[in-house]
Amino acid sequence: MKDIKTYYFLGIGGIGMSALARYFKSLGHNVSGYDRTATKLTLQLESEGIEIHYTPNINLIPKTVDLVVYTPAIPSDNEEYTYIVNNNIPLKKRAEVLGEITQDKKCIAIAGSHGKTTTSGMIAHILSKSSVGCSAFLGGIAKNFDNNFILNSNSEYVVVEADEYDRSFLQLHPTYSVITATDPDHLDIYKTHENLLTAFAQYGNQTQKDGKLFIKQNIDLDINESVNIEHYSFDNIEAEYYAWNVRIYKGNYFFDLHTSKHIYYDMELTGAPLYNIENAVAACAIALECGVNEHELRYGLKTFEGIRRRFDYRIKTDNFVFIDDYAHHPMELSTVIESVKRLYPNKRIVGVFQPHLYSRTMDFAQEFADSLLPLDEIILLDIYPAREKPIPGISSKTILHKINKMSKYLCGKEELCSVLLALAPDVLITLGAGDIDALVPTIEMAFKEELEIK
Predict the structure, then answer these.
(1) CATH for 103-302, among 3.40.80.10, 3.40.1190.10, 3.90.25.10, 3.90.1560.10?
(2) Could you tell me where the DSSP H helices lie in 225-355?
(3) pTM
(4) HSE value, Cβ hemisphere, 13 Å, CA-based, for 303
(5) pLDDT, tens digit (0-9, with 9 covering 90-100), for 180-205
(6) What are the φ and ψ backbone dihedral angles of 221, each rounded to 5 degrees?
(7) Domain boundaries, the chain
(8) Which residue, 6, 9, 171, is CA-closest to 78?
(9) pLDDT digits over 356-374, tens only?
């Protein structure tokens, strides 16, 4: 890896890919890439000196490229991918490269069907605010850093988000592993939930023998006896780490963190949804294991600002609230919606959901319908296909017809703002992992103008 000077990224706009691109750029290497659409993130990469183009063109691949890094989301018939394969240009998946980067470090890897991005961000922030420090490759933009990448050459720790898609996380052999959730997902890859659980178990078993696996209480996986396991929980006192005496004061959550050695009273989590307390317990467990002291732990947790698009407040006034969230799995939707209803119990809540992938919609149509049902008004956008071809008979209508209420709508992107303004919600939530985030600034501006919010 040390001799490679020129990197080319296929799918450079992906959140994981962009972190790697920033890493190699920070080391002084030549970095460029392709993605199919320009986004806020790709424009930021361009402003950092990384050349990006948005139409496949083999002539724009560097002539002296040492390594092409690609994401599995790139279609196999992509013109550039085909050219690179046919010409035997060195090619590696993102996960393989990440595994190589982390193998000589003390790797802290966070896996799970949900919760991994926020937990990764919390750990990275707490360590960065302590004498321990860390580098990090995150699956979202951490607000504290305004970045998905942190470089600290003086720290032996590197925090990474371990992605289960395409079994990518099996490229990692962490010192400290975390498993936050194992709900069924990515069945286009795994086919069955049992296969997914087998992969999570394999990931857990790859934890270094002198390290630890931190796993959410009640997750049952076939973990080898040689692996040192610690359990964490929201409130299960059988776990080695758990929260107790949870309460809310002036919009912030406070809780007592119980460990097998000590109780840390009155830990504070600022402006977060209730479910983030469990993520915080996992983050605190890792931080303490790495040697963070109590003062550093308290300060790091209290000052964590969250991850962009994870329960992300865009507008927050006495009369109107707008929250944007990346939730794209039924369990994630249920958790976010439950948290919003808990925070705003007497408000009329409107949710906009953009389904992500035809296969996921097909596999979980009823579960999506059930998770959206608690909303007062439900708006569905068309499916965001990402890497997939359409599946006959599967569309957003598949979910719509299964929602057992009248206050539901199928809406195009062009008319979304006018529909939302007409519905006049007390609380608005936008949900999804596709390109719905591109609509968020427009929605935000429309409501600020309508409600005369400065």
Answers:
(1) 3.40.1190.10
(2) 276-289, 294-302, 330-343
(3) 0.89
(4) 15
(5) 999 888 788 899 999 999 999 999 99
(6) -130, 160
(7) 6-94, 103-302, 312-450
(8) 9
(9) 999 999 999 999 999 999 9
